[in-house]
Write a structure and sequence with these properties.
Elements lengths: L4 H6 L1 H19 L5 H22 L3 E3 L3 E3 L1 H25 L8 H17 L4 H19 L8 H30 L13 H4 L2 H18 L7 H8 L2 H25 L6 H22 L5 H20 L5 H29 L22 H15 L5 H15 L3 H25 L19 H18 L2 H11 L4
Helix pairs in contact: 2-3, 2-5, 3-4, 4-5, 4-11, 4-14, 4-18, 4-19, 5-6, 5-11, 6-7, 6-11, 7-9, 7-10, 9-12, 10-13, 11-13, 11-14, 12-13, 12-17, 13-14, 13-16, 13-17, 14-15, 14-16, 14-18, 14-19, 15-17, 15-18, 16-18
Length: 486
């Protein structure tokens, strides 16, 4: 297949990110500079964001049989790049005084971002799997980057082993589908709609094995057990990156695959998705109730939130509505999660024996860092879905999706899960304002709001409030990008 100038124009964001990776490797090899190298990484990611504009003008564009550049892929690539930039900024504040090698963490983050971009633009199981593995391998190093900490290396090994097992399930499922249809493209899998093949055991088995891999990456029950341990062991900015960028990519490609292929014609597949959604909502919130470690609590919270999001996926018969619901929820959850993890990152340091992730570390924080406490309070309110926050708008759209698809029992799970969530989020907020009896193990820098990481966290919280109070611009953006999703 010949690459035309329009195809190359559509592929410019990938070229920009790949060039940033190569040049950053060269700069690190020539000279380690704790300011210049991360600055160049930020410039490269911003250049990739700018390259989305010329790609927009030539969409829709098929670039080889593996990639499809349309409004959907451009939107999710933009969200991937923005969340990566936010997490990279947090990382600089977190690792600034790290005495070991600091620059490689930026390289790994951009590699993971490239893998995520490959995933969201994929229209084939081949390119999807390549992007997934590129992203996952980078995360093995990111999770264990501060390996001198007690939990970091353990979390990296757990994630590597379980992620490899999930990839094996996915590969086996792809093999079963290829053996039946001789196709791995999403359009080629339209044969799944044929009655004589859609109910065949190996077709149903192959599809369910694929979903096992997706469920692991999204931390859906019963493939969620790795999540709290990995979130606890990973450096705080990496936890934010794992909770946002990686899951944005997986959810985007899962939704595209479910809509582009008639996978949902299989009753066992639909039933499995419904069970995983309800179980993730209820179990995620129940397990978070008694957590005294904030990163573990946010891990269980992410399980519940992606259970909520699966309700939006289940309105697959209305693709525009499905992309709207999932897109709004991903934006709301991403900015909120980055804000919550950002507070933990600003309170922590790569050189400390552990991150400031114990609930006790935040007791009485309001009396020492009132602005930072306000930031954390807003993010917790958004995670709980309280009105005038982005989290409320996201849950409202999911509730509408549940009504549209007449999934009343899933709406019941959403209501119960939200009620449980309010308890442990409020429990954390109350701790922030309790008087601390003279114990100060962790604290943010006195001038945290003047650094790039602090400014970014403040900007994220303002965005959480802006989306919650005035969501029309976000809705307009969704309508603009998803109208021609393909």
């Amino acid at each position: 297949m010949t690459l035309t100038p329009m195809m190359m124009q559509a592929f410019l964001p990938f070229v920009a990110v790949a060039a940033t990776i190569v040049l950053l490797m060269l700069f690190i090899a020539v000279r380690r500079d704790p300011w210049w190298n991360p600055t160049f990484a930020v410039v490269g990611l911003n250049a990739a964001l700018v390259c989305l504009y010329p790609a927009w003008h030539v969409m829709p564009q098929v670039v080889t049989p593996l990639f499809y550049i349309d409004g959907t892929s451009i939107f999710f690539m933009g969200l991937t790049l923005v969340t990566t930039l936010a997490c990279l900024t947090l990382t600089h504040a977190y690792i600034e005084h790290y005495v070991r090698n600091r620059e490689e963490i930026y390289l790994l983050m951009i590699l993971a971002a490239l893998g995520a971009m490959v995933m969201v633009a994929s229209i084939s199981l081949v390119s999807m799997f390549i992007g997934l593995e590129l992203m996952s391998i980078a995360f093995y190093g990111l999770v264990g980057y501060t390996y001198q900490k007690k939990r970091s290396l353990e979390a990296s090994i757990k994630y590597m082993v379980l992620s490899a097992a999930a990839s094996s399930f996915m590969l086996f499922g792809m093999a079963l589908l290829y053996a039946q249809f001789g196709e791995l493209s999403f359009t080629g899998l339209r044969f799944l709609a044929q009655p004589e093949t859609s109910q065949a055991y190996w077709v149903v088995g192959g599809t369910l094995l694929l979903l096992v891999g997706f469920a692991f990456k999204l931390s859906l029950v019963p493939f969620h057990m790795w999540t709290p341990d990995v979130y606890e062991g990973a450096p705080a900015p990496v936890g934010a990156f794992l909770a946002t960028t990686s899951k944005v990519a997986v959810m985007a490609v899962l939704l595209r695959m479910l809509i582009a292929t008639p996978v949902m014609h299989n009753a066992p597949v639909v039933l499995a998705l419904k069970i995983m959604a309800a179980a993730s909502i209820l179990i995620g919130n129940l397990l978070a109730l008694k957590q005294n470690n904030l990163k573990r609590m946010l891990g269980y919270s992410s399980i519940a939130h992606f259970g909520y999001m699966m309700i939006g996926v289940l309105i697959f018969t209305k693709p525009m509505a499905a992309f709207m619901v999932v897109g709004v929820y991903l934006v709301g959850y991403s900015v909120t999660a980055i804000g919550a993890f950002g507070v933990i990152a600003l309170m922590s340091s790569a050189e400390a024996g552990r991150d400031a992730d114990s609930l006790q570390d935040y007791r009485g924080l309001f009396w020492r860092r009132p602005l930072l406490t306000s930031v954390f309070t807003v993010t917790l309110l958004s995670l709980a879905g309280i009105p005038f926050t982005a989290g409320f708008i996201a849950k409202f759209y999911v509730a509408v999706a549940g009504v549209m698809s007449q999934q009343l029992w899933l709406l019941g799970a959403l209501l119960i899960g939200s009620a449980l969530g309010v308890y442990f989020y409020l429990r954390t907020m109350v701790t922030l304002y309790m008087v601390q009896p003279g114990m100060r193990g962790f604290d943010a820098d006195m001038h945290w709001g003047e650094h790039a990481g602090g400014i970014m966290v403040l900007g994220v919280v303002l965005l959480v409030l802006l989306v919650g109070i005035f969501p029309q611009p976000l809705v307009w953006l969704m309508q603009l990008t998803f109208t021609g999703h393909g």
